Amino acid sequence: MSVSPMAYETQFFGFTPQTCMLRIYLAFQDYLFEMMVVVESVILKKLDAFPNCQISPFEIRKSTEKFLCFMKDRFDHLFSKMEEVLLQLVLNIPKNVLLPEDKVHKQYPYSKEQFQALQDEIAHLRQQYRAEASAGQALRAELEEQKTVQAELEKILQWFDGLENICREHGTSNFKESFAFLTQNSKKLLDVLKDVEEKSKKLKKHDQLM
C-alpha cells in the first residue's frame, strides 16, 4: 500500500485514496475466500457420487488451502499494479490543478512571513479586546457601586429631611439645636430603657424566690 499522505486528494474526495484502495483489496480478498469455500463444497458433493474414490475430505481441504495461497499470491501481485495505476491516474490530483476552495490563496498569495505577521496582529487584537472587555467590566462594576452609594446617600438625605421636619414640629429650626435636642431625647430613652431592664431583672429574681 502507498504511504504517501496525499493530503490534497483527501481534501477533494473526502477520504484518503489509501483507505479506498484498502477497502477494495479487502472486498476482493473476501470474495476470493468465499469462492474457494464454494469450490470446496462443490468438489465434496461431486465426490459423494463416487463412493470408491480414495480422496478424503482432509486432502481436499489441504489442496483447497494450497490453491487459495497460490491465488492470493497472484492476486496480491496484480493488485499492487492496479493500486499503482489507480493512485497515479484516477485518485491523483495533478500538481497544476487548484481546487475551487483554494483559489483564494492564488488570488491573495501570502508568504510565511506575511502570514506570521497576520497571526501576530490577530493575537495583539485579541489581547487588546480582552483588555478592553476587562476594563468595561471594571467600569460596570464601579457604576453599580456608585449606584449603591447614591442610593445610600438618598436614604441619608431622606433621613435628614425627616429629622428636620421633626425638629420643626417641636419648634426647633436650627440644625445644631435640633441635633442637641435629639441627643438629649436619645439619652432619656436610654435611661428609660435601662430602668425598664433593671425592673425586669428584679421581677425575675422575685419570681424565682417565690
What does this structure look like?
This is Protein MIS12 homolog. One of its GO terms (cellular component) is MIS12/MIND type complex. It is found in: Chromosome, Centromere, Kinetochore. Keywords: Cell cycle, Cell division, Centromere, Chromosome, Coiled coil, Kinetochore, Mitosis. InterPro entries: Centromere_Mis12 (IPR008685). The protein is mainly α and 210 residues long. It has a domain at 7-99. The chain is 81% helix and 0% strand. The protein is built from six helices and no strands. It has helices at 7-13, 17-48, 57-90, 103-107, 112-169, 175-209. Helix 2 (17-48) runs antiparallel to helix 3 (57-90). It is elongated. The N and C termini lie far apart (109 Å). The mean pLDDT is 79.
